[in-house]
């Protein structure tokens, strides 16, 4: 699929979308409670996300005010493409886990996909911050190398430190802004700001789509009730209704497709509308 050319730059043409993985056999008995129509819709949704990026995306060659960077991505397009790849893989993994009786583990991916969506929506509304974080790569890598105790005498450390130092000299204002992006409350604020674009109550959306699956992610006492039951400790990860998590993730996939359509001018609106109708018809599953 070729993306529409825009006046702000050129396209990089890539060959096809996600790689084709050879089929394999599995001896695990699949969860037959999952509705086949939901499975088919779910697959169409995440594959559409992959197909939307199959034509590549736009790059620009711009001076970076003294920074040694030759090629520059449009920040919103770059982050949207990045999250498209992450969401595609996480959605496919979620389907595999749910079908293979690992519903509790599927909720880990549900939370990740929701966070990817929210951050992508946030960056789409805040291009300066999206650009700041792209250029912050050497500073972020240096922070990670220092936390890992990486040998400062190694060439990699010296190269990254030199780039970070140059960034601080050339872009002091940007570096000051980057410092506040690391704060945990800031990250939660980004997720909530992403939720705001979805409409409805931020408080309830945040609690339902972020905090509930987080109980499993962080191993809280509220997640304990799924493991310790009246019958004793269970290693069975299956959920009472395995359709719920896939239906919920489908909502996120539709919203991300809407973002892709807007950012890359794909002309997907008719398909998105049909996906919404198809998902609405499956509401009785949840």
Average pLDDT, rounded to a whole number, is 83
Main beta-sheet strand count, sense and barrel state: 3 strands, antiparallel
Run of helices and strands = EHEEHHHHHHHHHEEHH
* Rg over alpha carbons: 21 Å
How would you write the strand order of the largest sheet? 1-2-3
Distance between the termini: 34 Å
Q: Provide the low-confidence segments as ranges.
A: 1-15
Strand content: under 5%
* Number of helices, where a helix is a run of at least 4 consecutive DSSP H or I residues: 12
Q: How does the overall form come out from the CA principal axes?
A: globular
Structural class: mainly alpha
- The helix content is 55-70%
Tell me how many strands there are.
5
Domain unit count? 1
Task: Characterise this structure.
- The protein is mainly α and 286 residues long.
- It has one domain (10-15, 42-285).
- It is built from twelve helices and five strands.
- The strands form two sheets. A three-stranded antiparallel sheet has the order 1-2-3. A two-stranded antiparallel ribbon has the order 4-5.
- Helix 2 packs antiparallel against helix 3 (103-125).
Keywords:
12 helices, 63% helix, 5 strands, globular, single chain, 4% strand, 286 residues
Record the SSE blueprint.
Elements lengths: L9 E2 L24 H17 L5 E3 L11 E2 L1 H25 L3 H23 L1 H9 L1 H12 L6 H16 L1 H10 L2 H13 L5 H16 L3 H4 L3 E2 L2 E2 L9 H22 L4 H12 L6
Antiparallel strand pairs: 1-2, 2-3, 4-5
Helix pairs in contact: 1-2, 1-11, 2-3, 2-11, 3-8, 3-9, 3-11, 5-6, 6-7, 8-9, 11-12
């Amino acid at each position: 699929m070729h993306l529409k050319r825009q006046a702000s730059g050129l396209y990089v043409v890539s060959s096809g979308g996600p790689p084709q993985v050879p089929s394999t056999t599995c001896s695990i008995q699949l969860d037959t409670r999952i509705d086949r129509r939901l499975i088919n819709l779910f697959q169409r949704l995440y594959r559409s996300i992959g197909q939307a990026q199959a034509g590549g995306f736009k790059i620009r060659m711009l001076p970076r005010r003294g920074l040694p960077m030759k090629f520059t991505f449009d920040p919103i397009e770059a982050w949207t493409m990045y999250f498209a790849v992450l969401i595609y893989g996480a959605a496919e993994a979620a389907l595999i886990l749910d079908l293979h009786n690992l519903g509790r583990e599927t909720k880990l991916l549900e939370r990740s996909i929701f966070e990817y969506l929210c951050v992508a929506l946030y960056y789409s509304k805040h291009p300066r911050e999206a650009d700041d974080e792209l250029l912050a790569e050497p500073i972020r890598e240096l922070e990670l190398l220092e936390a890992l105790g990486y040998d400062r005498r190694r060439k990699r450390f010296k190269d990254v430190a030199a780039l970070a130092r140059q960034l601080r000299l050339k872009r002091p204002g940007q570096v000051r802004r980057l410092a506040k992006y690391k704060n945990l409350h800031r990250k939660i604020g980004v997720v909530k700001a992403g939720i705001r674009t979805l409409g409805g109550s931020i408080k309830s959306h945040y609690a339902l789509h972020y905090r509930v699956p987080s109980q499993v992610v962080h191993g809280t006492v509220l997640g304990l009730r799924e493991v310790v039951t009246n019958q004793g400790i269970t290693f069975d990860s299956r959920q009472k209704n395995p359709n719920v998590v896939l239906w919920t993730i489908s909502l996120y996939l539709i919203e991300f497709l809407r973002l892709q359509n807007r950012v890359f001018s794909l002309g997907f609106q008719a398909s998105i509308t049909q996906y919404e109708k198809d998902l609405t018809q499956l509401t009785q599953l949840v």
